[in-house]
Structures are given as C-alpha cells and as structure tokens.
Amino acid sequence: MESPTPSRRPVIAGNWKMHRTVRESVELIRQLKPLVEASRHCDILVAPPFTALWSAARAAEGSPIAIAAQDLHWESQGAFTGEVSPGMVAEAGCRYAILGHSERRSLFGETSRAVSRKAEAALEAGLNPIVCLGEQLSERESGRTEEVVGGQFRQSLAGLTEDALSRTMIAYEPVWAIGTGRAATPEMAQGVHAFIRGLAAEVFSRQAAEQLPILYGGSVKPENVDGLMARADIDGALVGGASLKAESFAAIVNFQT
Ligand code: PGA
What we know:
This protein has helices at 22-36, 53-60, 86-91, 102-107, 112-124, 137-141, 145-156, 162-165, 186-203, 206-211, 225-229, 246-253, and strands at residues 11-15, 43-47, 65-69, 94-99, 128-133, 169-172, 214-217, 236-239. By secondary structure, it is an alpha/beta fold. The protein has an eight-stranded parallel β-barrel with strand order 1-2-3-4-5-6-7-8, surrounded by six helices. Helix 7 crosses helix 9 (186-203). It is globular, with a radius of gyration of 17 Å. The two termini are 26 Å apart. 2-phosphoglycolic acid (PGA) is lined by residues 15, 173, 178-179, 217-220, 238-242. Residues 15, 173, 178-179, 217-220, 238-242 line the site of 2-phosphoglycolic acid.
C-alpha cells in the first residue's frame, strides 16, 4: 500500500527547564536570533522559565522563534498558590505549552489525568500543547515500553476531540535518555514513534494520526539530530541541555534536511 505523503512540518523546541534568569533569557534569545533567522524549514520554539516568558517573547519579536511555557495549571484563575494559568502564559506571549514532562511526572507527582486537564485548558486559551510521554529504564528493560507509553497517551489525551488533536504535538522522551547523554538510537525512537502514530490512528483517525507531529527528546545534540530527523515518524526534537547554548541549539535547528 502506498503511504500518503506526510504534511508534517518539523519542529525544534528548546526546554530550558529551571535555567536562565530574565536577563540571561533575553541574552540567549539575542544570540540565537541571527543564527536561526534564515531557518525556514522548521518551526522553532523555546521554553524559558515563567519569570522570563514576557521578556523572552519581546526579545524574540521579528524572529522565527516562538515561546512556550514549561507547564501550566488547568484552572483559569483562583486560590491555587504557586500556579500559573493558561491565559497568563498566553498573555505573556506563549503560543505553546509543554505538558506532562517526565520531571513533572516523577518529581512533582503529575498524573496523566492532570496532563489531560491541562491540555484541554491550554487549547481553550489558544495554546498548542506539547504532551510528553516516555518510559523509565526499568519499564523498557522489562519489555513494557508500549504498555507504558500507550497508557500515558490514552490517559493524557483523554477527552480531546480530533480538532483539538490537530493543534497538539506529542514529545516521546524516554526517561533514561533525558540528561544522560545516552540518546535513544534512531531505530529505537522510530519504533516508538510509529507505535504512537498507530495508536493515534486507533484512538482518533488515520488522518489525524498522519498530521500529528511527534517530537523525540532525550540527549538530542548537533551530532545526533540528523540521524533522528531522517526517520519517517520523527518530526522534531525537544531539546534540554543543548538548547541552553545558542550555537548548539542553532546547529540542531539547522539539521540536515
Ligand atoms: P536533554 O533533555 O536534552 O537534556 O536530555 C530533554 C528534555 O528533558 O526535554
């Protein structure tokens, strides 16, 4: 059977985690801008800490760099000390929100149920969610990768309509590859991405699955991005450590197409 030509545009996203003050964020964007201004082959986004969102968005104006939040709460306002709402980050200049990152799941007890509420709330505020999924090393070693990632997919996207899915991205980030320097091989990542796309076809539709961007995350570097991006179901990268330096992030953005 002939496979349809996917219309998916590559996405390279930088997750700055709890790094960079307001001043440092503005400086990093300033350094990044000239290195990516001619990069039209992919969407580029960075996720600074909450405090720097507004300033980073101003600094990125006139460039292809879009801004993402690293998390948000599902309510629009209220007595939720320490939380930030979708409308707040949208007003600060965000167009995207990373949700359910494995650090939030494992260090802060975030459940897939919470991720699904956050995804719905993000979409309602006009943001595009990037929903993260990924197995722990012990789960991979015991052959449970598909069970774990499949369960996270179903629960984290529960309740989304097909239209909502068309504004959503997935990031597959095996926990054992995050910040360890040990990326999944392109074959390993492709296998899980194809599994996720198959599941999206089952839960939503074939067409929705074909259009769904699935990013890979976990020790992506300038040296391994080309091999990953060459794979059919790998549509982009969610980059942690290597997104904190303008040169290395730009080298990833400018991967070999
Ligand atoms: P890393 O992080 O690139 O430093 O492995 C990726 C992520 O956590 O999104």
